[in-house]
What does this fold into?
Amino acid sequence: MRKNIIAGNWKMNTTLPEGLALAKGLNEALIGKALACDVVIGVPFIHLATIAGAIDTAKIGVAAQNCADKEKGAYTGEVSAAMIASTGAKYVILGHSERRQYYHETSATLKTKVNLALANGLTPIFCIGEVLEEREKGKHFDVVDEQISNALFDLPAEEFARLVIAYEPVWAIGTGRTATADQAQEIHAHIRQTIAAKYGDDLAAETTILYGGSMNAENAKDLVAKPDVDGGLIGGASLSVGKFLPIIEAF
Ligand code: PEP
It folds into this structure.
């Protein structure tokens, strides 16, 4: 079902005590507030169980930032979707551009990860987005279409309906350079069209599509005011309650 969501991606930041303090601080700040969006925090693996046990997870969903592409077994250092689900986490960020770039994740791997996440009751927040060169050559529409169709379009409609999509232009991640609200709306509408062409208008209208890339307290209102922008995936600004809260309150 389509929802407004503001999701944080802490990346490889915070020790466990720091992360716990940040999560508790956010939990505290949200007490008594009537929110117009769901709130999610994407935390390091080792924080998952501790944070999920320390906050009101009905108010703040907990997400992992990756999962293994194997179910279980002799894969030293990997963390399975079942392990993530067992901590109380409800979401997993998959296909983030940093994982595609630095860990060479392909659509084939991501397809397996999405299937495992869904099979274990997790909601994948599936990231797509073009690099600067692709945008400059006008290829961004084709790039996101390929990323979606290669990794996701083998899913039956009822499984696809459980996903959240996050459009994150790589040139806007961590750079301070945000897509304009009009640029975000244009490509979000395109993504919704691509989903409609495969699964029909109803499912496309029910799909949550987040924007990510240097979203902050200043630009969040304009972005979420756009009809096809259902919220955001926020990196840097999710590492402080003071910066994250105004984004949550942008709805
Ligand atoms: C991200 O990592 O998904 C992201 C959008 O980062 P930032 O908000 O820092 O650009």
